Amino acid sequence: MKDTPLSNCERDFILKAIEEKKRLDGRQTYDYRKIKITFGTDYGCCFVDLGQTRVMAQVSCELVVPKESRPNEGIMFFNLELSPMASPAFEQGRQSELSVKLNRQLERCLRNSKCIDTESLCVVSGEKVWQIRVDVRTLNNDGNLMDAASVAAIGALCHFRRPDVSIQGEEVTVYSPEERDPIPLSIYHMPISVSFAFFQQGTFLLVDPSEREERVMDGLLMIAMNKHREICSIQSSGGIMLLKEQVMRCSKIASVKVSEITELINKALLNDKTARKAGGRCGFAESMPQERITALKTDQTEVEMSDVSETASGIVRTAKSPPQTVPSPLVPVPGVGQVGEGLRNTWGLEEEEEEEDDGGESSGGDSVEEVTKMHVEQHQQDKSRAVDVVEILDSDEEEEEVVILYPETTTKPKTTGSSSGQKGAGTSRKQKKK
């Protein structure tokens, strides 16, 4: 999935703001975003927040066979992965041009600069050496991934501790952290990358470009330097021509920024070491804000509990006693019944009484006629409105049932029981036969 491109209005707005020496986030031309460095629970895990850009670096080690050309040196391996979680423009398991460029720049910055003593990683010459692997993963992309990755990688390497080993003859013993304290790596210096974005063919310069500024820039210059003002690597991209004065100006700005970031890394390492030694909160649990981990937890509210018993007694005295019995509701119309404790079952009482009076002598058609007439009469009495009476007649012939409507003014025989129902049915049959 590709990222959404900028519109022409957004592009013109950003370029116009840069010409007026203004930035979208309110920074000045040479200002860095706020950097936050935290470490995980295990050694060698480092989180770096550069504004909204978030990167995690994890260092691991294993014993391997050294290279034939350098049998007395350990192996350094770097891997930077652009996760789809960081940006929709990144694809899983596919090497993009940006990923290859960042991996090469990270190797030049840390491995080619000889910032780590690789000879101290040798266990047995030509047989066993330590391979240090640095995995950098992007968690959120808001621009300037290279600077955040370099800070996270060097911070993780400074925080990492490898297991202690002992050699007895040809036998190599690796001790766990419980048996022996792990050993930190031997680091000579800390190279840190600083990025500069150029606009309008190098006319305007910005430090630490954001994601939107990277989209409209013409070129990018990345300088890796340590606090001793030694340039470890330099790389330019974008196809713009830079003058000597521009490169020297960028190097002077980078020296100031690198000194500040190096001091910040050392301070973060010291705080983590102090917290671990004191047995306090450290690592990932300490690095995350408290309200994010316990999102459903609220502060306790003090409640006055001195006069609770008196207040409860007063409420009980003034409260009204609940009614002992509940009045049963009346059945409004036929067909609505109520079943419950202490109440009479009213479902189908009329039908049961009629069946008892009938004694089982009436036929199926007569019972249907009687029930229908009874419901019609009761409905007229309850609602007190003029409706026609419906009488269903049963025929002996193989024909459909005949429905005769009696107006309200017509005199009808009263249905007092099963015998009257049978007489009415016989009368209707005679009329139909005639």
Low-confidence stretches: 360-365, 385-393, 415-434
Counting DSSP E segments of at least 2 residues, the number of strands comes to 16
Largest sheet: 6 strands, mixed
**Shape field:** extended
Structural class: alpha+beta
Backbone CA Rg: 45 Å
Q: Helical percent range?
A: 25-40%
> With helices defined by DSSP (H or I, 4 residues minimum), what is the helix count?
11
Strand content: 15-25%
Q: How does the SSE layout of this entry go?
A:
Elements: H1 8-19, E1 35-39, E2 45-50, E3 53-64, E4 75-81, H2 97-110, E5 122-124, E6 128-140, H3 145-159, E7 161-162, E8 165-168, E9 171-174, E10 183-184, E11 192-199, E12 204-207, H4 211-216, E13 219-225, E14 231-237, H5 244-278, H6 284-287, H7 290-293, H8 308-318, H9 349-358, H10 364-383, E15 389-393, E16 402-406, H11 418-433
Parallel strand pairs: 4-6
Antiparallel strand pairs: 1-2, 2-3, 3-6, 5-6, 7-10, 8-9, 11-12, 11-13, 13-14, 15-16
What does the model show?
By secondary structure, the chain is of the alpha+beta class. Helices cover 34% and strands 22% of the residues. It is built from 11 helices and 16 strands. Strands 1, 2, 3, 4, 5 and 6 form a 6-stranded mixed β-sheet that branches. The chain has a 4-stranded antiparallel β-sheet with strand order 12-11-13-14. It has a two-stranded antiparallel ribbon with strand order 7-10. A hairpin with a 3-residue loop joins strand 5 and strand 6. Helix 2 crosses helix 3. The longest helix is centred in the middle third of the chain and has 35 residues.
